[in-house]
Amino acid sequence: MGTTWSVQAALSGGHAAGEAALTEAVTARLAAICAQMSHWDNASLLSHFNTAPAGSTITLPRDFAQVMAGALAVARVSGGAFDPALGRLTDLWGLGPNPAPAPPSLAALTQARAACGWHRLAFDPASATLHQPGGVWLDLSGIAKGFAVDAVVDLLAARGVRHALVEIGGECAGRGLRPDGDPWWVDLEAPPAASLPGLRAALHGLAVATSGDYLRGAHTLDPVTGQPLIGSVTAVSVLHPSCMQADAWATALGAAPLPRAQQLATAHALAARMVLRSGEEWLSPALQAML
């Protein structure tokens, strides 16, 4: 998926000798997820769907189906602020594996936008089938990393490792405690120019995902215009028991206009921190209650 992963785990004596086996298991789990949902892999199932002829239907494996269900649910309730079907636009802007030598032309943008949109997808969760209406490219980079974090946490727990911090591309989930009895503390980063007080989260059964433009520049696309989004919010962090949900909602809140983002965070009881380009911050009622 174009990023890295790390696991910190408190292993008991029985697990210490199996560290290599755990590493192999995590690597295999992530490889399987990438083989399904990575748009960096031309052989992935996602890439196969993107190039499938109009009218075709693909049966999704359980992981892919779970991510699609979650992605479309957030797309619906956010009014499309999160959109898993912007693949043609992200490719056009060089936000994936294929660099763009120059900004796209207006004609190319118009053509790509016509082929995008989550509302063009027909997904049947009962049969786990996804219909390709023709020309739709999926891009699950705003949710698949979070799902992968959850998957690794579950894998470790199934193998008896219940005290761990899992991180993929900056998205984190913590379970149990550190060996010193503290929770897994994670600092929520903010742009240095913001000069905001630090915010440290205890990931004790929680995950956190951040979406921002202060490191890589504007890389979140406005689903309406197809242009890189430069709004009043420069970074959004969401705390949630599910890293998949935190990942998708951080993207959605970052793409929505500020009043709408604040409304969504409040209405859905999301623990969210928004860092404004003005250097101020907004904390959702759910996050204020946690503090």
TrEMBL record:
The keyword Transferase applies. The keyword Metal-binding applies. Its cofactor is Mg(2+); Mn(2+). It is an enzyme of class 2 (transferase). Mg(2+) binds at G142, D247, T251. It comes from Erythrobacter neustonensis. One of its GO terms (molecular function) is transferase activity. Pfam families: ApbE. Transmembrane segments: none annotated. This is FAD:protein FMN transferase. Keywords: FAD, Flavoprotein, Magnesium, Metal-binding, Transferase. It comes from the Bacteria. Signal peptide: none annotated. Its EC number is 2.7.1.180. Belongs to the ApbE family. Magnesium. Can also use manganese. It catalyses: L-threonyl-[protein] + FAD = FMN-L-threonyl-[protein] + AMP + H(+).
